[in-house]
């Protein structure tokens, strides 16, 4: 593969970035809500937006692994960049699986803004509920924000370095 991303990859990147920013904001609103109403509202919005984020992130992950990553050199920096991309994609993949999983293991539907619900009865697997919830919360609260911050910092650094 050449060193440039395709227009589809760039579009998915920015759709994904907007989606991740939105879902993280709603997630933090849930965690830090002062009132029960704000918590429930942000939780419902987080779940509804998460439904669509699932498709954007899944499409992006499949496309990225199908197309591959742009070629890189063997420098330590390039290896770190590649591992950061892998970590971001893996984290997002785990988040889009664990979010619905911890709803479905309690036989709760995934309600999409009250328009429709997606349901899968996995209540026969109660041992998956707590690990799914904890993994989702830890990755969404701590790991993903750190990875996104590193990714943005790397993008800014790369942008200014290429101007030289």
Keywords:
mainly alpha; 164 residues; two-stranded antiparallel sheet; Fumarate Reductase Cytochrome B subunit
Question: Quick gist of this model?
Answer:
By secondary structure, the chain is mainly α. The chain has helices spanning 7-31, 36-67, 76-104, 129-162, and strands at residues 110-112, 116-118. The protein is 73% helix and 4% strand.
Helix/strand layout:
Blueprint: H1 7-31, H2 36-67, H3 76-104, E1 110-112, E2 116-118, H4 129-162
Antiparallel strand pairs: 1-2
Bin the helical content: over 70%
* First-residue to last-residue Cα separation: 25 Å
CATH homologous superfamily heading: Transmembrane di-heme cytochromes, Chain C
Proportion of strand residues: under 5%
Main β-sheet: number of strands, strand sense, barrel status?
Answer: 2 strands, antiparallel
CATH architecture: Up-down Bundle
Q: What would the average pLDDT be, to the nearest integer?
A: 88
